[in-house]
Amino acid sequence: MSPRLPAPTLDRRGLLRAGGALLSVAALAPVLASCSSETEVPVTAGGTPLPIPPLLEPDADGRLALTAARGTAQFIPDVATDTWGYNGDYLGPTIRLQRGRPVEASITNDTDEETTVHWHGLLVPAHADGGPHDPILPGETRTIAFTPDQPATTLWYHPHPHEITAQQVRRGLAGMLILDDADGHAPGSAPADGMASAAEAASPAADVLTALPHEYGVDDIPVIIQDMRLTEDGEMLGHNFNSEVGLLGQTVVTNGVVGAVHTTDRRVLRLRLLNGSQARSYGLRLESGAPLTVIGSDGGLLEAPVEVEAISLSPAERAEVLVEVPDEGVTLISSQPDLGNVADSEASGGEDEFTILRLERAGAGAAEPTTASAEPTAGTRTDNGEAGDGAAGPASIADLGLPAVLATFPEVSDRGQQRQMNLRGRQINGKSMDMGRIDLEATSHQPEIWQVSNLDSSPHNFHIHNAQFRILDIGGQAPPPAMAGWKDTVYTPPQRDMRLAVVFPSHEDDHSNLPYMFHCHLMLHEDDGMMGHFTVDVSAQDALAALEGTGHQH
Questions:
Q1: What is the pLDDT of residues 505-552, one digit of tens each?
Q2: Is residue 215 included in any domain, yes or no?
Q3: Could you say which DSSP state residue 346 is in?
Q4: What pTM, to 2 d.p., does this model score?
Q5: What gap in Å lies between CA 548 and CA 543, rounded to an integer?
Q6: What is the CATH number of the domain that holds 521?
Q7: Which of 48, 213, 262, 477 has the fewest CB neighbours in a 10 Å radius?
């Protein structure tokens, strides 16, 4: 018998929709009582070996397969929680792709809800983007073809169905995606004005790629950070009923476990950090006060390594950092995320502190690393997280021999089509998401400047599909070095303006005429309508006709 799904929670929008009429206080009383009776129990157990998700790579013909299905997992000792996962019980394998090599991804939906798979941060044709316009129905298998063409980076994949993205990600549908660029793919020609899209950016130099830690699960570690709300019997709750930002859980899981510990014989680790949470921002730092060396952001390597005390990641943002592991070990924690001038820091999660990951030296009595369970799939390779050659590797970050320049970037200017994006409440530019409306038309290879303004006193962030952008300024000031690289998602501080330099790539082989999305990636906001449509090299009229053809123009 299939495991029971968590009982749905009724949010504010659901209350307003119920019955299509106003509900009296008396009618709401049973509902409100049931909401208040759901008691969250923080889980803080420690010492669990960090699971290393298995690698899923395309076979010789470029094919790979994902199946979304129900499962169970234990976040509370000896208590089962109903979950969803890709090719397993919770989360999914780490997909590894190569720049310039075609991919055919077969996606099977074994859940009872329509779903999609969005390749977050990948520059792909609209038909392959995994937006809400053409969902995969229960029991259906969909094959999607694309060829990744952008610099090496850390990405992720997750569902993007209309109005139910948050609940599917919360249950466990998410995974990391690593794009390699080992073949030295030549960049395309930049446009005459000097700006270029990420698809036209040069590959990192070969000496950079070999100098960086690159043994998956050994010195190159995926770190997927999520928070959740659990009851004592393991039921997974939805977002906090009175929360402005969405789900802020008091249980943090790393790669799907509470109290994660990773044991290593390496002195230097590369951590690929992904904020896979729904609303929570993290202020990631080492408890010892030692610095983090940031080498990459959402869209690839930075121009040069940046040493920081802490790095803040809002939902869907990624960063690659180098960490030195001393004999006594070191702990990655979250505290004091930089939320800007937020009206209520506590209500936005700004006062919470969590242990994210303990790093121990091998032989110190810590837990041994493990590999997450997943059903065998064609093209899947499992690494057990143990050192491949028994060597400790470089003794320090300085001993890696990194060159002074990690990557080179196209010129950025403030010329181009000007766009204004005002974020307020659950709307962008005063409009809620409408599946039958195109908000703007863009032209590939033409520079655009998007000014994104958070008009609220609470947090938002902003994600653009089919784009890796550069931040021109935040409140008139240049971005800090750790934010100066390619980005696809960015935190938007309250009452601040941010200007983004965007150039969209072209996809000449895409004839779907479907649009892309821009939206707040706080998932409650996204599902509640804080999202819009845009096209690239496609007229609004043609896009609307395509949407009507999918049956999702509503």
A1: 999 878 899 999 999 999 999 999 999 999 999 999 999 999 987 765
A2: no
A3: T
A4: 0.88
A5: 9
A6: 2.60.40.420
A7: 477
